[in-house]
Amino acid sequence: AQSVTQPDIHITVSEGASLELRCNYSYGATPYLFWYVQSPGQGLQLLLKYFSGDTLVQGIKGFEAEFKRSQSSFNLRKPSVHWSDAAEYFCAVGVSGGTSYGKLTFGQGTILTVHP
Amino acid sequence: NAGVMQNPRHLVRRRGQEARLRCSPMKGHSHVYWYRQLPEEGLKFMVYLQKENIIDESGMPKERFSAEFPKEGPSILRIQQVVRGDSAAYFCASSPLAGAGDTQYFGPGTRLTVL
User: Fold this and answer.
1) Which residues, listed in sequence order, are joined to residue B33 by a DSSP beta bridge?
2) Cβ-defined contact of B104 to A95 (cutoff 8 Å)
3) CB neighbour list of residue A64: distance below 8 Å, 6 or more residues apart
4) Mean per-residue pLDDT for A74-101?
5) Nearest to B48 among A42, A96, A103 (CB)
6) Bigger pLDDT: A96 vs B47
7) pLDDT band at residue A34, thresholds of 50, 70 and 90?
8) Contacts (Cβ under 8 Å, ≥6 apart) of A50
9) What is the pLDDT of residues A91-115, one digit of tens each?
10) Residue B76, burial from CB neighbour count under 10 angstroms (0-12, 13-18, 19+)
């Protein structure tokens, strides 16, 4: 069965610093990978997704992620963090085949705190 | 194009009551997914529906929980005889397609509190 691990429960960075959020997945086939962001009390917003092609994916709000098959990773990065990036970030893998029809398996989430 | 709508946003129930959560997908989307987020946890898949059909309910508890997506109207997640452990945020997502790489658009969620 597929799984997603986000090793860091909570990360704190200073505004303007670079950011990397880790995500490791376990899936038997070519994965479909997503990063979502959740602000407090809100729903999830898609930042970016990967399913084929270039392993470096650009997303919204200046985020990017790199798919590394050899490491089963899909880490999210941003060169310079803004205070408004403080939120919880979820990595997810999309499941295909059978009746799974695209249901998402999420990691536990990483809470990002940004210091001024 | 309005996003995915969920209501109510907050719902308080006493143990033993019924909770009814509604989800209106984005216009043109015929695929609906329900996820549950327990405190301190990520989202867990519950059920996937198309219009008038339950396609995959493998993540939904066998008892007390049911879901529907009628031909007309919103999708409904129904929890009968709620218990404290049902307290969670319930998110609905919709998609125009149902492939593994297709984007799901999430609603703001319903936060259920069971007293």
Assistant:
1) B48, B93
2) no
3) A48, A56, A57, A58, A76, A77, A78
4) 88
5) A103
6) B47
7) very high
8) A31, A32, A33, A34, A57, A65, A67, A74
9) 999 876 665 667 899 999 999 999 9
10) middle
